[in-house]
Amino acid sequence: QVQLVESGGASVQAGGSLRLSCAISEYTYTIACMAWVRQASGKERERVATSYMGGVRTYHADSVKGRFTISRDNAKNTLYLHMEGLKTEDTAMYYCQVVGGQRGQGTQVTVSS
Description:
With 113 residues, this protein is an all-beta fold. The protein is built from no helices and 10 strands.
């Protein structure tokens, strides 16, 4: 069973940047589709970015497009989410996930004005 461990969450001010990392226990080149999802308190879970076709293609939700970038380093078995121009509405627990499979424990991002 694949294990995923997120890190990099922090409290930042609006306009700031963070890079989230997700260490994965299996070779990421074997995982076709991975994603970052977030869940804010009292809100539904939202998939913000997807890396698919083994990392060849990416998709970003409209809410983060132009500000967040998903990437993966298959040599390090790590998935990343680079976040810029953070807004207060980006405050949430962020999880990395094998689409259709395991999800990590999450890392908290808090953005203050």
